[in-house]
Amino acid sequence: MCSIRCEEGSTKAGMAKVDRRIKRTQRLLSEALIALALEKGYESVSIRDITERADVGYATFFRHFKSKEELLQDALQTLAEDFVDLLPNQMTLQSTREKGEILFRYAANNVDLCRVLLGSQGSSSMQHQLLRVGTQITLGTLEDQLLEDVPAEIVAHQIVASTLAMVQWWLDNEQPYTPERMGHLYEDLVMGSLERVVRKDLGEDAP
After folding, report:
1. What Rg do the C-alpha atoms of the chain give, in angstroms?
2. Angstrom distances, CA of residue 121 to CA of 39, 72, 76
3. Coil, strand, or helix at residue 54?
4. Domains and CATH numbers, the chain
5. Whether 107 contacts 167, CB under 8 Å
6. What is the pLDDT of residues 173-183, one digit of tens each?
7. What are the distances in angstroms from CA 189 to CA 25, 29, 111, 128, 174?
């Protein structure tokens, strides 16, 4: 019995070690892509550039990703998941200031990645993908909060497009206001216009 348990424990420890190595390699590749994209633009970065910067074998790259687009998609998905984990479970107008503060604080802590995804160093297809992913996530938070005749897809798209534009402006201008101040502006400028279509907060008889 002890032999079996010891063997199982050894197997799990080995798997955990391999998993840490995989995550470390993926993180190094992701960081290399972001740094290079900031230096010379995403479109100019090659897989060879990435592996040399990350000090990872060229063949090793393809054990993890099929292309640099897939590597970027992985970084994008991680960013989206991290951000969603920080947000309240459900979006209400009362929570939008807090949501805005969290968003801009997160952007401040992930400046390089956000600049690549939102700025000129990235690509239009990348920004379109970020908008699509963000819209899908936002749709889930809008469930049962809109008036029946309001298309949720349009509302979600508008929220995400306006939010991304606001974050991009803030980063391009070297973060002139605090995340707390940007949370207030986010509440007023991005979410304030939605008051007439949100049922939960204002009710069906809202003007």
Report:
1. 21
2. 8, 13, 15
3. helix
4. 1-65 (1.10.10.60), 67-207 (1.10.357.10)
5. yes
6. 999 999 999 99
7. 41, 37, 22, 22, 20
Question: Token pair for residue 5?
Answer: 């348990």
**Backbone φ and ψ of 198, nearest 5°:** -95, 115
Does residue 97 contact residue 187 with C-beta atoms inside 8 Å? yes
Predicted model pTM:
0.67
Give per-residue pLDDT as tens, 6-57: 555 555 555 566 688 898 999 999 889 988 988 888 889 999 999 999 999 9
CB atoms within 10 A of CB 191: 21
Number of alpha carbons in the 13 Å side-chain half-sphere of residue 70: 9
DSSP state of 146: B
According to DSSP, the residues that pair with 146 across neighbouring strands are 198
Interior angle at CA 121, CA 120 and CA 124, nearest 5: 60
Give the CA diameter of the chain.
73
